[in-house]
Amino acid sequence: MSDTGVTLPEDPQAYVDQVMAEIAEEVKVRRASGDLPPKLERELDELFLAHSPVAGRGGDLGDALRMVDAATFIDPVVPVESERAAGAVVKKGMRSLLLWYVGWLTHQMSQSASAVSRALHIVDDRLGELERQVEGQRVPAAGVVEFPELQRADAWWVEPAVVAVTKTPGRILHAACGEGWLVRRLVAAGGDAYGVDPRAGAIDTSEQGALDLRSEPVGAHLRAVAAAGLGAIVLSGTVEGMAAAERSQLLAAIGTSLAPGGTLVVHSVSRQAWEAVDAPPETDLAAGRPLRPEAWCILLEQSGYEATAQPGPGGADYLVTAVRSAITSPYAPAER
Amino acid sequence: MSAAAGGPVAVHQFIATLNPHDATGTHALRLRDALRAAGWHSEIFAEAIHDDLAPDAFKHWMYPEHAAAGDVAIYQFTTSSAVAGYLAEQGMPLILDFHNFTGPEYFAGWEAQSVARATAAADELALLAPRALLGLAKSRFSEEELRRAGCGRTVVLPVLADYGRVTAAPDPRVRAELAALREGGGADFLFVGRIAPSKAQHELVKALWAYRRLYDPKARLHLVGGTSSFEYTKALQDFVHDLGLSAAVRLPGEVSDAALAAYFADAEAYLSLSAHEGFGVPLVEAMVAGVPIVTRPAGAVSDTVADAALVLAAADPSYVAAALHRVCTDERLRSTLTAAGTRRAAELSGDLAVRMVEAVATVVHRP
């Protein structure tokens, strides 16, 4: 019995777990009823980002320089307007008395600011030149590579993936979600799932009211998600063509957005399927190539996951299921 | 290994800033009293000292005037400070009392000077941790960081805090102000902490917006604490304004202990969605004040709250709103959480000062 006369549960932790499950169910029902459409939650994120310098407000050197230029000149002539009758006369008198001194100070300050501004313009020019040179050597971001036979609702790996991620509390992200075939399946299995896909036209807009599908790259999306905001992530058709640096960045973003104890599921095609003559043409254009399942396990274990790999029946693909360690630290030796 | 095999030994503390109302300042003062009670000579040396505590401490560069052979230093590590380099130069036996610090990644894009300061703090930790005879971590999370930084011997001992301040007589003026707000209806949610990107107050605002839309259009959020990031504070205020929540989200700044007691007394729930916490003194204060906690597992939060909070796997506004609604309407859940909170707060306070002294005595000869 508590101080307030309420009978306390015999097993408080089991009771809290039950409450958490009921809260998750309540959220699903609310979302399904349209009380809080996914679009509104997205707009909240975007609204805050619009105020954040991270989103580009002042983050661009050119913009910053324009602000510096505008602020470089300091006007020594103080405005003398006043709402009071004698105020303007008094202010004008003070201005006349002080103008020689204020002018001397502001002249030096303006000169100093101009020198800084000139230096920054030189830095801007040189950075621009460097960016042009780097652009020529840039490794393009991997696109989604679709193997229709392997990435569909009745594929062998879908059931184990659904079981693995719906065991974990929290939201489930699928990338690349396409028209939402896996998101639909996850929702039907009781998961609070949504999807992202960077391909123009991949998302069926008529489905957007019922399913939470967003048109954006997975990396950019994960960087905008709150830390530890996701319970599980499923990647399919996403990682095969990635170069090492892009893969590292994606794993770092996953490490931040996946909750401790969360599940990461990676479905990838094998090298054999990637190099087959009937493979999609995007495989030729990709900067990277698929890792072997053992390599994924090593990579994920180095990043603090417990990973297991499961080969597909025809040798064309495989599934890696990884559970993130419950203890995290910013000093964790992730592949960053 | 013992720092001194015999004879009188002083165990002095060094700290970046000694403030009367913050957790580290209170911790240092209480630890000094405990060290003195155990028989050690003990003074506090700080880079900056609040006027009210001027009689209690010396500037760190005045240490040579007080130095004696066999002195041991306890460094209260909270942020980057000139004290770290000073201690490294002195080369005296060192105990690192690690309160954790917010990493540079949390300030990236917001405040260049905060990024630089946090980066410097990481460098200072890497400099001092391998030299420390002992690391006193405030949580398992912080202990893990200490070990990664090279500290070979560590023990987890929470903060010596004055949790009684939240159950002391509340400020009648603030109480009346909050009562006037409640007359119009609506729940009051509370968060205590400096306004900073790592504390993610914008996530709290999103949750309030969803809660008002789904459950209680008159609910309010009190964000108590000063600011350490003006860019973030400005963005937060603009965000609140754009959402039409200017009257519902209140930012009273830093408040007195009595005012803080008033905020806790009237809070329906304590909500924290911080991205990083090294320990989370206000979480324990909420437990002591009997306020149920809704939070997420970031940094040391899970270590601190244990089973005494609703720890959400996702921080989506709709999830948080649903959790707040449940806490506000389910008396059994409130009682379960507050009963667990009372137990947990007792575990995190109790005979801590004695345990701190015992930990120090494992590496320093007792007087």
Order of helices and strands of chain A: HHHHHEHEEHEHEHHHEE
- Whole-number mean pLDDT of chain A: 83
- DSSP, total strands of chain A: 7
Helical fraction of chain B equals 40-55%
Kindly, what is the distance between the CA atoms of the first and last residues of chain B, rounded to a whole number of angstroms?
16 Å
Can you walk through the features of this model?
The complex is a heterodimer of chains A (336) and B (367). By secondary structure, chain A is an alpha/beta fold. Chain A is extended, with a radius of gyration of 28 Å. Chain A has eleven helices and seven strands. Chain B has 367 residues and is of the alpha/beta class. In chain B, the strands form two sheets. Chain B has a seven-stranded parallel β-sheet, sandwiched between helices. In chain B, strands 10-9-8-11-12-13 form a six-stranded parallel β-sheet, with helices on both faces. In chain B, helix 1 links the parallel strand 1 and strand 2. The mean pLDDT of chain B is 92. The chains are: A alpha/beta (336), B alpha/beta (367).
In terms of topology, how is this protein built?
The complex is a heterodimer of chains A (336) and B (367).
Chain A: H1 12-33, H2 38-51, H3 61-72, H4 87-137, H5 158-166, E1 171-175, H6 181-188, E2 193-196, E3 213-214, H7 218-224, E4 230-236, H8 244-257, E5 258-269, H9 271-274, H10 282-285, H11 293-302, E6 305-311, E7 317-324
Parallel strand pairs in A: 1-2, 1-4, 2-3, 4-5
Antiparallel strand pairs in A: 5-7, 6-7
Helix pairs in contact in A: 3-4, 7-8
Chain B: E1 11-18, H1 23-37, E2 44-49, E3 57-59, H2 63-66, E4 72-77, H3 82-90, E5 94-98, H4 112-128, E6 134-137, H5 140-148, E7 154-156, H6 172-183, E8 188-192, H7 201-214, E9 220-224, H8 230-242, E10 249-253, H9 257-266, E11 269-272, H10 281-288, E12 293-295, H11 301-305, E13 310-311, H12 317-329, H13 331-348, H14 352-361
Parallel strand pairs in B: 1-2, 1-4, 2-3, 4-5, 5-6, 6-7, 8-9, 8-11, 9-10, 11-12, 12-13
Helix pairs in contact in B: 1-14, 6-9, 7-12, 10-13
